[in-house]
């Protein structure tokens, strides 16, 4: 049976879309067929992050112009598909997110994938939460600042009111700093379990610039291991962290300083 996961955040810029992409790539490495849907109808970014620039048909065209959803399912890599949202405000004016039948849309694309990752818009003002299908589970992404946790709490409260099941929260861009909220503090504020801590890591940005996921570029880094651990948890799979190739580094170093033959 297909799984539907909405990835939401109270505040923008906490790394929600990046996480959606990295989880999608991670899930494909576990052999799943993944579809990522950009549900941010106003400030879409999934197209940019997945390298899908200027797609011919977008979700806007489906919602406002009666184009078929099949026309905007783009396979970016084996086992990874993306449904992008448009950037034209004129089309957007004809769409009321509250009245979108996501059930119908998801039914039409169900055969394309096992897992549907829905990149939600930041905040609670879009009305899009009201239209989500009943079987959607939600992940809340936050950083450890007071304001992003406060806004994450608003998402948690709204989700409870709408009976949306929450899997837990992901603490993204984490770094050790005595002034930021701790995991325990965030857990007690949000009252949902922590399911992943992704460190603040410049490699995330660098991999994006290279058009790849960090789990492909640097699979043994703490960030990639944390992402794959989270992916495995969501899929109910086992994941053994990849150790950095210390021996390889050591022998390369020895060769460099002339202790070993080439
Ligand atoms: N763990 C991380 N470490 C370092 N940088 C990160 C991490 N996660 C995301 N970023 C960077 O943070 C920036 C914002 O990420 P992203 O666009 O995914 O956020 P968002 O929450 O989806 O934002 P918006 O709500 O505005 O769409 C990007 O430049 C991304 O590369």
UniProtKB/TrEMBL annotation:
GO annotation terms (biological process): cell division; negative regulation of cell division
GO cellular component: cytoplasmic side of plasma membrane; cytosol
Gene Ontology molecular function: ATP binding; ATP hydrolysis activity
Highest taxon in the source lineage: Archaea
Binding-site list for ATP: 11-18
Annotated signal peptide: none
Residue stretches making up the CobQ/CobB/MinD/ParA nucleotide binding domain: 5-213
Keyword entries, A-Z: ATP-binding, Cell cycle, Cell division, Nucleotide-binding
InterPro entries reported for this sequence: CobQ/CobB/MinD/ParA_Nub-bd_dom (IPR002586), MinD_archaea (IPR010224), MinD_FleN (IPR025501), P-loop_NTPase (IPR027417), ParA/MinD_ATPase (IPR050625)
Family matches, as NCBIfam families: minD_arch (TIGR01969)
Protein name, UniProt field: Cell division protein
Species annotation: Methanobacterium bryantii
